[in-house]
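## Example pair
The file below holds two records. Each record gives the amino-acid sequence first, followed by its structure token line.
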Amino acid sequence: MIKHANTEHPVQDFVAERWSPYGFADRAVSEADLRCLFEAARWAASSFNEQPWSYIVATKAQETEFARLLSCLMEANQDWAKAAPVLALGVATLDFKRNGKPNRVALHDLGLATGNLVAEATARGLSVHQMGGILPDRAREIYEIPEGSEAVTGIAIGYAGDPDSLPEEIRKRDLAPRERKPQRDFVFGAAWREPF
């Protein structure tokens, strides 16, 4: 299932076709494809080339590891994410290695890396659903994430599945049309709220 965006201006297909399904097919992601997604993340831009991102990854084939990572998601996200063949946590290192000072764009840079991952996934026919509903303290405890780094987002990766397999409320969200604010609401020119 592809939910193509209704764009105001033309964009590349992999941008228009990217969406975050709740339903995932019972189909494994090859290790080669998975490695390519993280290679795309590797080559993201970052402030001072700091690359302040890390990922913790588990596949369904690794039952124990998958269950541990799933337990780092909030319960509402566990309900649907357990069907994804791959789960990951995106972790940001919050201080620069070069001087120990706070890196105020660390979360931005993690977002860029994950954006690259999502673009690569979409180009390969895969779907990614990111979620803020995680348990960072549990992730820190289970994975011994050091102080100065923080689990920021959960990531489900796989092939979009049949929404009919989802509970009713989640199925409605999966089938809902994609909507976005128009550019005039967020692209400004001479003053705040003055459209560019």
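Second record, same layout:
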Amino acid sequence: MDYEITTEQLKLLRDAGSVTVLDVREPWEFATAQIDGSKNIPMGDIPARFTQELDPEDHIVVVCHHGVRSMNVTAWLRQQGLEKVQSLRGGIDRWAREIDPRLPVY
């Protein structure tokens, strides 16, 4: 499984209901713009919370602003044994520009 996924691929997975979207931005960023149904765990909280709040069997797509934090979290989660984790290429910024223009770009 690739480490990154495109906005189009994520849209197809969401439409099929077969993905967990994990947003690792800070709460103020999440409040500004979010993908409907996503779960917010800020990047700094991932080590303490992932075992209680994420299902290792789920296909998880990690989202941040532009894709840097999400790639770091994706790599870390894979090192912890979660195999079906991917980072959204371009982050919420690209999602807003390509998929959901209702979302503010910040």
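Notes on the second record: The domain at 4-98 is CATH 3.40.250.10 (Oxidized Rhodanese; domain 1). The chain has a mean pLDDT of 97.
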